[in-house]
Amino acid sequence: MVNKIKILLVLLLLCTSGCVTVPSGENIPAYSIGGVTYYPLVSLCDLRQVTIQYDTLLRTAYLSKDAKSVKLRIGDGLVLVNNNAMHLSAPIDIYQGAIVVPRQFKEQVFDMLFKHPAAVHRRTVAAKIKLNKIVIDAGHGGNDPGAIGKNGLREKDVNLDIAKRLNALLRAEGVQTVLTRSTDSFVPLSSRVSIANRSGADLFISIHSNANRSRSLSGFEVYYVAPSVSDSKRAALTARSVPLNLKEAVFANNSTDLKTIVWDMIYNNSRAESIELSRSLCKIMDANIDANILGVKNARFQVLRGIRTPGILIEVGFVSNLNEERLLKTAAYRQKLAEGILEGIREYSQNMALVEVISR
Fold this sequence. Notes:
Layout: E1 6-8, E2 20-22, E3 30-33, E4 36-40, H1 41-48, E5 51-55, E6 60-65, E7 68-73, E8 78-81, E9 84-87, E10 93-95, E11 98-102, H2 103-113, E12 133-138, H3 155-172, E13 176-179, H4 189-199, E14 203-210, E15 220-225, H5 231-241, H6 250-254, H7 256-288, E16 293-299, H8 302-306, E17 311-318, H9 322-328, H10 331-351, E18 354-357
Parallel strand pairs: 5-18, 12-13, 12-14, 14-17, 15-16
Antiparallel strand pairs: 1-18, 2-3, 3-4, 4-11, 5-6, 6-7, 7-8, 8-9, 10-11, 15-17
């Protein structure tokens, strides 16, 4: 890690009762919380190319663009607009792990201060993926074939082929990649975790193929680490063995308790980000492949429990299903799956823009 750790702008997942999605009028989600319409701050800023910095200790976000600035704090209705105070009738809040702002802030502050980019500047090509490095994990390998279809298709071969295709697509977009295996070799789960944690990557993608005794089952699904996996326990273990390397925050390096708090926040953020990535992938796949989309699920997979970055495990299809085994045997379908994963990553990276956490 570097002096200023980069993490994704998502706080602890909070359960807010009585919240439903409502139309936003723009290509961003909107939520009703306690009768007030809220918008995700990251989505607004990404739409208008506004820079965000977030101070985790002060729970304060700083927005800036073209010499204009806004300062806002979670739980507070007071915001500073170009250093001038403005009181909102509803506070800044958190919903589904992300900072959200009330309609009043959007319409009376954000929309007035940060105008829509001119139409001539709108991009007509695919948006750039806002990630630097991704670990791609091809499940099984070597003496571990994984699931085997009725007609002999081996999971380890499907996983590796899709991983290599995704690797090529990401590299063509300028994203650095790390493969946990690039050949038909056996890599222990603990080694896969170590590779991911040493890489300094932004994401971890583990690719698998499914199987079930019932050959009628089919479909695509994505897993994130289960909520039953204790972030605080993982944080305590990590704090004792992994340096934060925050040179500007000596207190964090010297205090195990404070390091544990920081790691706990990182693990919470990672789970929230993993959920968002899972949703993006399922959305893209639903529109692009002819398969059942079984949705987003959670599990206690070892590779997901051990990694310190946002990570998911993808089940691309059931080799035990005769139709999906036939599809997964073809290069065309594997390429389509790799391209779908790429587009899901692209959408996720656009919706959940990376921000820099300020070290004081």
